[in-house]
Design goal:
Layout lengths: L7 H12 L2 H5 L1 H7 L3 H29 L3 H8 L4 H31 L11 H9 L14 H18 L3 H11 L1 H15 L4 H9 L9 H14 L6 H6 L9 H33 L11 H13 L4 H34 L5 H16 L7 H44 L7 H27 L7 H23 L8
Helix pairs in contact: 1-9, 1-14, 1-16, 3-14, 4-5, 4-12, 4-14, 4-18, 4-19, 5-6, 6-8, 6-16, 6-17, 6-18, 6-20, 7-15, 8-16, 8-17, 10-14, 10-16, 11-14, 14-15, 16-17, 18-19, 18-20
Bound molecules: phenylalanine (PHE).
The site of phenylalanine (PHE) has 15 residues, from helix 1, helix 2, helix 12 and helix 16.
Length: 490
């Protein structure tokens, strides 16, 4: 008998927990600001409606119908499609390896928040790059492994292991805290942020619509990839999670709820980030656009500096890094669970705990490369290549197999037979045409750009690692898929 979530609510919690993650806090606010504030929300919402929600429905439906993780679900449709699941899992594993390192940085800052003065107070830039990362000049110089980082990484993986060691049973308990907690902490930060001097300027800056970039491909690509990453689509996570629902669970409302909760958290995070940055700009008398950054620098350089200017700086830093840690935790263990589910679909005899332990141990070991002095460069490269290619490819293949082989209509009939809100033929069009065509365009434009100009001007030898993590899994999947006879058991 397959394990089951205790209730529909728990399922919603785990799916929201996976979607809501570091991406909401450090990527969304920055992208919104960079691509025209309020004007960015329009493409974002369109991408959410025509790609995010239909794909979320699709992943929920496949997992729930087939009652298997990503590999098994596609394998049921046809043996030669099982490698799509494999690609999803590999991408997920790659992401979780570096994602946990970022959580490790949060752990270091979390501990640092107890010190007075704060360890980064004198120079946040130097603290992050030199003390925490011990960064080298470029990806060709590996530097040495940071001991504190390795310990932090180990702590992160131990936490993850204890979240997943009993599979659905332990996740169902942890999620009751790990999903709502960051929402609550972020609300605390929200009230702190909006009551700061200068907050209004910061927030106006964030949301002021600027339509001048509206037609740029960059903006639409950014909106699309953000929707994809933020909703944890294409990693086999939502498929694995949905496979622990009973076959008669309602689908559409769950999917819409998860998408809306994720977007709500992103917007909330924007108010926090820009409220605080507005205050910092005021206090330091610098223009806001000088202090805004995305990625690691936002969360680990600019933001800690901004927080250190507040009264009770230690407390607010603690809250902020605890939020980051918990935002990341349920996203990270969702990836582990996606892998564990797939392994246990095949080898049912191995205990959940054993698989969880092996996956966590391998995850920890694979993360070590990101704890070296060149770790940040590797992280950036692997993140770019996995998200731009493998993930998008999984999205395209999922749509083609469901839309054209299994039949979008057939899956829609199933979805409507169990859901309280029905979906119309529009969904078939999205899955058969809109999503695969849009994602293919995105993939081709990205490919063209990466071939024309080396990503972030990294040396070719370093970019080779990026191409390798794309090409090797795709080659394995292709050989695997093509060597199977096409026989369907669905
Ligand atoms: N959705 C997560 C975020 O926004 C990222 C993520 C993607 C996490 C895939 C797990 C798996 O941060």
């Amino acid at each position: 008998m397959r394990a089951r979530w205790d209730s529909r609510l728990i399922f919603l919690f785990v799916a929201i927990g996976s979607a809501v993650g570091l991406g909401n806090l450090w990527r969304f606010p920055y992208l919104t600001y960079k691509f025209g504030g309020g004007a960015f929300l329009i493409p974002y919402l369109i991408a959410l409606l025509v790609i995010g929600i239909p794909l979320m429905i699709l992943e929920f439906a496949i997992g729930q119908k087939m009652q298997k993780g990503a590999i098994g679900s596609f394998g049921t449709i046809g043996k030669r499609f099982a490698p799509i699941g494999f690609l999803a899992i590999i991408a997920g594993f790659g992401v979780v390896a570096y994602y946990c390192v970022v959580m490790g940085w949060s752990v270091i800052y979390l501990i640092g928040s107890f010190f007075s003065p704060l360890p980064w107070e004198a120079n946040t830039q130097q603290y992050f790059f030199n003390n925490v990362l011990q960064i080298t000049d470029g990806p060709s110089a590996m530097g040495s492994i940071g001991v504190a980082l390795v310990i932090a990484l180990a702590l992160v993986w131990i936490s993850i292991y204890f979240c997943v060691f009993k599979g659905v049973k332990s996740i169902g308990k942890v999620i009751l805290i790990s999903m709502p907690l960051p929402f609550i902490l972020l609300l605390v930060l929200f009230f702190r942020a909006i009551t700061l001097d200068g907050a209004v300027e910061g927030i106006t800056y964030y949301l002021k619509p600027n339509f001048s970039l509206f037609l740029s491909t960059d903006l639409w690509m950014a909106a699309l990839t953000q929707v994809f990453f933020s909703l944890s689509l294409g990693f086999g996570i939502m498929i694995a999670y949905a496979s622990f629902n009973s076959k008669s669970q309602s689908i559409t409302r769950n999917a819409v709820t998860v998408c809306l909760a994720d977007t709500a958290l992103s917007l909330l995070a924007g108010f926090v980030v820009f409220g605080v940055l507005g205050h910092m700009a005021l206090v330091q008398n610098v223009p806001i656009d000088k202090v805004v950054e995305s990625g690691p620098s936002l969360a680990f350089v600019v933001f800690p500096e901004a927080l250190s200017l507040l009264p009770l700086a230690g407390l607010f830093s603690f809250i902020f890094f605890l939020t980051l840690f918990f935002l990341g935790l349920d996203s990270a263990f969702s990836l582990v669970e996606a892998v564990t589910t797939v392994v246990r679909d095949t080898w049912k005899k191995i205990a959940v705990g054993t698989v969880a332990f092996i996956v966590s141990a391998v995850g920890f070991l694979s993360g070590l490369i990101f704890t070296t002095g060149a770790g940040l460069y590797f992280l950036d490269i692997i993140d770019h290549f996995l998200n731009s290619y493998v993930l998008i490819l999984v999205g395209i293949l999922q749509c083609i197999v469901i839309g054209w082989v299994y039949g979008a209509k057939k899956l829609r009939m199933y979805i409507n037979s169990v859901s309280s809100s029905r979906i119309g033929v529009w969904w078939d069009y999205c899955i058969k045409w809109v999503v695969p065509i849009t994602l293919s365009l995105l993939l081709l434009i990205q490919l063209y750009r990466d071939i024309q100009t080396p990503y972030e001007s990294y040396p070719q030898s370093a970019l080779a690692i990026g191409w390798a993590v794309v090409i090797i899994p795709i080659a394995i999947a292709a050989v695997w898929g093509l060597s199977q006879k096409s026989k369907s058991s669905a």
